[in-house]
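Input record, target 12 of the design panel.
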């Protein structure tokens, strides 16, 4: 997978590299919603947009690997569903919490400071990308069967999800 990243970058075909495309999607969404948050002086959608960004990067990351050489197999689909289910659960929980409480105290000092608020959105972009990167490596593999290590990871995931 690392060789694919290096070879794609060296040929100048950045638009075909899943790592770069998901990075641009991730930080693009953070920038758009960060600017909206600054304009409306709110932090209420911060965590929910983090979850939406996870889901968007997951969908794009797995779909970018559909081609003649790399097809979506059950393992890649399960991985994408795991990432999306976790992000949806977390995002909905945090959105309900911020609606119920009326705001997020973590951002009290940042809502009036546009650069500080945008920095929080930048940090969220880093968090999303660091979380999605292992899945990007998995989706880039050409293995067509479920690997034992994937099963172990999904079992651990299920324990953490519930």
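The sequence produced for target 12 reads:
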């Amino acid at each position: 997978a690392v060789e694919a990243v290096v070879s794609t970058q060296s040929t100048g075909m950045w638009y075909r590299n899943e790592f770069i495309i998901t990075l641009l999607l991730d930080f693009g969404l953070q920038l758009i919603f960060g600017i909206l948050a600054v304009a409306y002086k709110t932090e209420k959608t911060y965590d929910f947009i983090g979850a939406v960004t996870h889901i968007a990067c997951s969908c794009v990351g797995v779909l970018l690997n559909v081609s003649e050489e790399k097809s979506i197999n059950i393992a890649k689909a399960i991985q994408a569903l795991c990432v999306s289910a976790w992000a949806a659960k977390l995002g909905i929980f945090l959105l309900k919490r911020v609606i119920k409480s009326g705001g997020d105290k973590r951002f009290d000092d940042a809502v009036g400071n546009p650069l500080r608020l945008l920095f929080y959105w930048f940090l969220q972009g880093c968090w999303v990308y660091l979380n999605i990167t292992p899945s990007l490596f998995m989706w880039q593999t050409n293995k067509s069967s479920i690997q034992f290590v994937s099963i172990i990871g999904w079992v651990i995931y299920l324990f953490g999800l519930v």
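DSSP finds six helices and no strands in the chain.
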